Fold each of these.
Amino acid sequence: MSASLIVLSGPSSSGKSSIISALQDLWPRPLFASGLDVFIGGWPDSDVTFPGEDGSPASESGMRIVQGVGPAPCWIPEYGHEFHTVTRLAHRFWADMTREGIDLVIDHVILDATIREQAKGTLDDAFWIGVNCDFDELIRREAARGDRYLGFASGTFAVVHDEMTYDLVLDTTATPPDILARQIHLAVLGDQKVHDLF
């Protein structure tokens, strides 16, 4: 049986991590989870820049936070060449894992044309899932988390699905993660283990 490669693409705080955790519990084989946040977390804080308190734009860096196009507060990371090199290698790593037989699910947030091209070109055998959530609920979740710079939900919501097509689209606004995970399981594996789902 060939390995599965699943990509969940959606805005910050849309519930992708909760779906992935539920999907891992359902999967008939070990399902490895990764995502863009793993590589963002490894990027040095010294090379991340923020706008000034006076509203001045963030200085050029490997990753700088800039004003997004959604309702305020609205922020989005802008990646430099160095971080785009990291993301290019991340996509290659994910593809190699699957080619070596590892089932993999990726929590992705595609925010610019470079990363979109990398993802589509390298993860060409992936099962792509678009994750949606009502905007007001997304903002509520971001505030409730207490561990995020407020405004990334609005910023990512505005652009994450640009020029994307999906094999499956999910809405997390009111549907629990375990139900959505079952939908993914059935969509990717067909009737394999279907008796365990219901």
Note: The chain is about 40% helix and 20% strand.
Amino acid sequence: MDILQSILLGILQGMTEFFPVSSAGHLILAERFIQTSGDPALFNLILHAGTLAALLLAMQKDVSRLLGEMFRMIGGLFRNLFAYFRSSASHKEPDYARIVSSNYRKMFLLILTASVFSAVTALPLRHLGLTASDNLIFSGTGFLLTGVLLLVTDRIEPGTKVPRDITYSQAAVIGLIQGVTVLNGISRTGIMIAVCILLGFGRKFAIRFSFLLSVPVVLGALILNLGSFLQTEASADLLANYAAGSLAALIAGLITIGFAMNSMRKAGFKVFSWYSFVIGTISIICSFVL
């Protein structure tokens, strides 16, 4: 793989990551066309790190607010613990602080719940996803499944739920389904938005929640694969290619993310569902000719 190929694949990752069309499925198809060398699974993960950086920059207000509320909740828990011990000593009723006192605090706990339950399905399926990481029939089928769900979702009137209306059991369901998206071709963004809307989320919040939910997912994948990356005997040229691809994904992602959010919020998902049908069919056909 040369540096131009790395940059082109990084641009492709950045352009598709925030649309409900499976960036991983696109990378598998593109890599088959240009005959890349090296470890594609590791390279694709590095590209995802680039789009993760783009997401953190684009949604830095939400991310910083969530982190701030996390630390405030931890502080509140310690204050309540101290209040309990003080009341035990003085035999007075403890004056507990309310922990989940805002939508941002509830959203943090919903993301945490969904992330934990994602691991329940993602970890057992991770090996299958890696085994089929270059299988175009597998990813093509994932595209088709995504297209069907997007088409169904587009016919459903979005709800009005915001974090305070969402239960932790619903977050657990979202997490369990998100874990399945480790299988290539199934769009994590598309599936998560669709599930959220089916559970009654408002479309705008469903998109925002889906994007924020990808942060712990990608971070977890990076941590799980850190050992493999450190053990890889990479030349200076290969590391430069990885860096160039990740930077290209970051820049393309920053350019794309706002447009992606607006188009999904205003235009719906029908166009993306038909696109998934087309690219899925192309992937399956290419599995027999490439």
Note: Residues 3-89+100-289 form one domain.
